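Human: Not sure, check this?
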Amino acid sequence: MTPTEFTPFVSLGGGLLIGLSAVMLMAILGRIMGATGVLTGLIMPTNTSDMGWRAALVAGMVTAPTLYLLATGDWPEISVPVSNGALILGGLIVGIGVTFSGGCTSGHGVCGIARLSRRSIVATGVFMAAAIATVFVTRHLIGGF
């Protein structure tokens, strides 16, 4: 089992950028920045007038590593300390959770809590509790994947 790195400044910077982008999207377009909702609306559009900002947001998420490369000379380090099977299973579980909770961590956790949405506060509490339990079980009871 690899130890988890503590990166407070990088994490703070990332959190500030996510918060700033969420505030800007709400202030400029009146839309909530839930990543799964943004992507779903891009793949299965119900309103074609939303396509531009959705495509720009997803393009920014995809091209950000290239900007990092240009700024630092290195690709960002991506480490996924689990097997491909665990990664696929986790993705399926998250997809099911997003469907049942009506949103994801960015929509509920960042935007919903900031708006004092009771539904988002409950949803965030549930998926945080599930994440804590999952980490405890996989790291301490069954020894990881």
